[in-house]
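Every protein is a chain of amino acids, and every chain bends into a shape of its own. The fold becomes a row of whole numbers, each drawn from a learned catalogue of backbone shapes. The protein below has been through that process, and both of its lines are reproduced in full.
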Amino acid sequence: MFGTYEEDVALARHFNIRLYLRQQPVMLGVLSVLVVIFFLFVSGLARAYYAQRQSLGNRWFNRGIADLEAKRFSPAVTEFRTALLYSRDDFDYQLNLAEALIGLKHTGEASAYLLNLWDREPDNGLVNLELARIAAQQGQFKEASHYYHDAVYAAWPAGEESKRTQARLELIELLLRANDKTEAQSELISLSENVGDDPVQQQHIGDLFVRAQDYERALVAYRTSLKSDKHNEADLAGAGYAAFQLARYAEAQQYLQAMVAENPKDTASADLLKTTEMVLHTDPYRRSITSVQRARIVKQAFEIAGERLKSCVIPSSAPTTASSPPLSLNEEWAAASPKVTELRLRANPDLVDSTMELVFRIERQTSILCGTPTGEDLALLLISKLHEGM
């Protein structure tokens, strides 16, 4: 009925094995659940830890932004540095820290941050703009120009497009300081195509075109601005000056007269208007004047040129291979003097031309040897440029 001892032991061992095999899946399941719970617990702790760090970083960052906007650069630097303790590689934290450092004029440290950010995002507009400003301050024209160009053509976020315009304006200023007027004109043309009819911006563009010596486009910009306010003094003065430089004296006179009427104390515009009116009234080749008026103008111009010769010593012409040397301007003027009378000038158009040709040569030569003239001599010099080649 009962087995041997060995049989009982074998039976018990078999039973234990079967019991173990039945319990193993349960134990594995329990262990798996414990592992999952532990993993979720640790992950939750990690997320809470990182969320807390992010919250603290953002809190310090927001404080830094407030101080940076208020130009309290020193506390802003401290706050951005603290924010970086919680997120060392955050791009915005580093960028704003660099701006705060620039505010403190710590440009060396700021450059280090900016160059690191540029390596990460070389097409970032603000990073390029700040690097351009630092290079410009340090007199590094080539580097500044490069960064400014990258800033102009960078992809700016929505709401920050005005910074693209600012970058281009700063680039233009850089080019003008370097006397690179051709490149400045090119950038100004691009700028003018994107500012619309805003009078303030058009006036600024007009001023920049004047500095770049592109008077045609400067005049267009001033005209556009004047559409909003025809009494704007800066636009009237600018338009008058640009028209004067283009030798459009009748147009310049209109703008300058309006300017002086608005502000009689503007001596620069008043002097320019005086010169403009002298050019218009002293030009013997203008239309709608009689032969009597022309003769009187030519006679007066001849006398003005004679006085200019007396005040400006001109050396005699060098000898040539001809049998006799050419006459000096003084000798030419003296030889012509008996012939230049109003009566003869009215009767002889060729004498008008030869007399004015001599007057123009006198004014050009004396301006080279004795400097730019003033008053009536300046008017005659400008008239000579109107009729060059005659």
Residues 257 and 273 are 7 Å apart (CA to CA). The mean pLDDT is 87.
